[in-house]
Structure formats: structure tokens, C-alpha cells
Amino acid sequence: MGWLVDSSSVSIVITYLLVSAVFIVLRRREPQMERPLRVGGRSAAGGIAVGVAAVITTACLLALYVPGMPAMLDVQPYVILGLWWLLGMVFLVRVPGGVAPGKDAEERLLERLAERRSSAS
């Protein structure tokens, strides 16, 4: 059970890193997106600065898991981590592509999935 917990802790830090990166991407691509919480004040530069700081901080946290560092893990958690991410990639390639970003992107993605299921039957 310890290996599973160890491998999931690395996954959590990777997830934090991805969320921080997406925070920056959304700030640049969708500046007018409705947000329940304003981060960084009214200017775009403040929000991007917060996002960059979050990316740097989580990258430093991830560096703790590198062999030779204080939170170094054995080989088994890394094997479990790799298998878990491989399984995630299998699910990722099954998501239909070609759905452009926008307010109704989720609805269009669900329509494509429904079309795929109906054509498969």
C-alpha cells in the first residue's frame, strides 16, 4: 500500500503543475472568461505573475522526487506512476478531437461522443 501512496503523491504534484500551467494558458487565450475568483487584480500581468510563481513552486516540489533528493522514491512507485499515466493516455486518445475552445465546447464534445456511440452500434 505504501508504493501506491508514494506514486500518487508524485501524481498530485504533477497535477498541481499542470493546473498552474493551464492557469497561465487560460489567462492568455481567454482573458474575458467568466471567473468566480479574480486572481492578480484587474490587470492580466498580475494573474500571469501568480501563475508563473505557481509553476515555479510546483516544479520545485516535483524536483524533490528526483533520485538523490530528500523525497526520493524507490523504483516501484515510479513503475506504478508510469503505468497509471499510460492508462490515462489510453483514455486521452479515445476523446474525439477537433472541438474548438469556447463556451459551448463541452456540449459539442458530448455531441461528438454521442455520434460516435450511435455510429458504433
From TrEMBL:
Keyword annotations: Membrane, Transmembrane, Transmembrane helix
Domain of life according to the entry: Bacteria
Membrane-spanning residues: 6-26, 47-66, 78-95
This protein's name: Uncharacterized protein
Organism: Janibacter indicus
Record lineage: Bacteria, Bacillati, Actinomycetota, Actinomycetes, Micrococcales
